Every structure is written in C-alpha cells, then in structure tokens.
C-alpha cells in the first residue's frame, strides 16, 4: 500500500490504520465460532501476516485474544470489554429515556422537573438532572445541589422504598435542621411522613427544604427493579397549592411510564 493510499484509508476510517486493523481483526474473531489461523485472518482482512502477528501479540498481552496451536480466538479481556461497552450503552439509553420523560412531565406540569439520587450514606439527595420550567416565576436549582432526605419530597420518596427498620435507623442517626419556618423536625412526624409516602406511592412536601417551594416525587426503577432515582416536580408553593393532587397524579404517571420504558414490570 502506497503512502497516499494509506493516508486515504486512514481518512476514510477516521482512525490510524493500525487501530482500524485492530477493530477488523476483533470483528473477524467475533464472527468465528472456531479459532482462526493467522493465514486465514490474513486472507480475510487482506493484510500481511507479519502485520497481523504484531497486532495479535499486542492484543494477547492485554488478554483480548488467546493463541494456541497456530490459531487465535477471543480472550477474557475481550468479553470484559464487551460487557463494559454494553453497560455503557445501557446507561446512555437509560439516561435518554429518563430525560425524555422529564421533558414530558415539565411540559405537562409547567414546572421544573428534577431527577434526584441518594448518596451512599443515605443522608442526602443530589440533583443529577433537571428540566427547567419556562414560567418566569419558577423553582431554580443547579445540577449537583444537595438536600437532606428528611426535608425533601425526593428524599422521602426514596426513604419510602427502605424497610421500616432502615427508616428508623436513619431518623435516629440524623440531627434535623430547620431549613424553613415550616420544616418538620420531630422524629415521629417524619416517620409518619415516610409511611404516608410508602402508602401513597409518592411524597409531597410544602415549604420544607425552602420557603415557598412545593416538591412532589415518585421513584423510577429499572428493569431489575433497582432504583434509578426520584422524579420530582418542583414548583412555587403559590402556584402549586391549588393543584397538589394533580401534581401527585402527574409525577406518579410519568415515573411509571419512565420505569416501563426502562424495562420495569
């Protein structure tokens, strides 16, 4: 292959020639049920055996291929890489589906919609995505902002998926702070609020984490039944006060729709 032809091939592939050959080599091994000889790989890929042998040695060093008796097959590293790629694809598809549902819910409700997840310690929720309301007066928050479980609709919705014993342990561990004049601090009242969320299938807070903000949340689950997070409608209390039941219905419907799109049954 001449220099100009080589450069043309690299431009077409969008990558250096050696990378393109690695990809085609792995594709050829993926397509075969049996180990493939170097000579056969050379014929299939129209590539000199000396070039392929060098690539195969490099791939073998990473356990991506295994060689035995003059033939080659995929190694354990290739299957690990394949699993990682499939997981990355699943996450990407899931985030797209969740985002689509958030947009629908924001359009239906006219309010800001958030996705919240709990931290490893189970004390705080973090807002990981949002679709902001188009209303001039709206609730505003930044991705990455954190709030305590006890004072948020998302936190209470997530707590409602835990066992009563886990909820009790959480309430014994924390020291609630008054975040607004109406923040509920009593352990019995907070326990009752979580149990109400468990019974209702959603949680709703009015002026708890911040004065003038109403939150309504329901959890989203994936195909395995795992928690993706809590879907939240965050609205100014002045506008939400006359439509609390409507907001609850909408967030439950959309959380269920997103969960179904992720494979939850």
Automatic annotation (TrEMBL):
This is Transcriptional regulator, IclR family. SUPFAM superfamilies: GAF domain-like, Winged helix' DNA-binding domain. InterPro entries: GAF-like_dom_sf (IPR029016), HTH_MetabolicPath_Reg (IPR050707), Tscrpt_reg_IclR_C (IPR014757), Tscrpt_reg_IclR_N (IPR005471), WH-like_DNA-bd_sf (IPR036388), WH_DNA-bd_sf (IPR036390). Residues 77-264 form the IclR-ED domain. Pfam families: HTH_IclR, IclR_C. Keywords: DNA-binding, Transcription, Transcription regulation. Residues 16-76 form the HTH iclR-type domain.
């Amino acid at each position: 292959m001449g220099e100009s032809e080589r450069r043309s091939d690299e431009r077409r592939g969008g990558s250096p020639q050696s990378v393109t050959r690695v990809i085609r080599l792995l594709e050829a091994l993926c397509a075969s049920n049996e180990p493939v000889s170097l000579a056969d790989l050379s014929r299939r890929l129209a590539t000199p055996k000396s070039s392929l042998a060098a690539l195969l040695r490099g791939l073998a060093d990473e356990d991506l291929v295994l060689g035995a008796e003059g033939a080659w097959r995929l190694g354990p590293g290739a299957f690990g890489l394949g699993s990682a790629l499939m997981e990355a694809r699943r996450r990407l598809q899931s985030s797209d589906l969740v985002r689509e549902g958030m947009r629908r819910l924001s359009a239906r409700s006219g309010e800001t919609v958030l996705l919240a997840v709990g931290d490893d310690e189970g004390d705080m929720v973090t807002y990981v995505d949002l679709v902001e309301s188009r209303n001039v007066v709206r609730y505003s928050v930044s991705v990455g902002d954190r709030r305590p479980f006890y004072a948020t609709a998302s936190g209470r919705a997530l707590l409602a998926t835990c066992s009563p014993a886990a909820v009790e342990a959480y309430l014994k561990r924390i020291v609630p702070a008054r975040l607004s004049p109406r923040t509920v601090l009593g352990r019995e009242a907070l326990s009752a609020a979580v149990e109400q969320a468990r019974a209702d299938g959603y949680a709703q807070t009015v002026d708890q984490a911040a004065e003038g903000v109403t939150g309504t949340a329901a959890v989203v689950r994936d195909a395995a039944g795992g928690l993706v997070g809590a879907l939240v409608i965050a609205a100014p209390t002045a506008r939400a006060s006359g439509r609390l039941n409507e907001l609850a219905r909408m967030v439950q419907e959309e959380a269920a729709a997103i969960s179904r799109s992720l494979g939850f049954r």
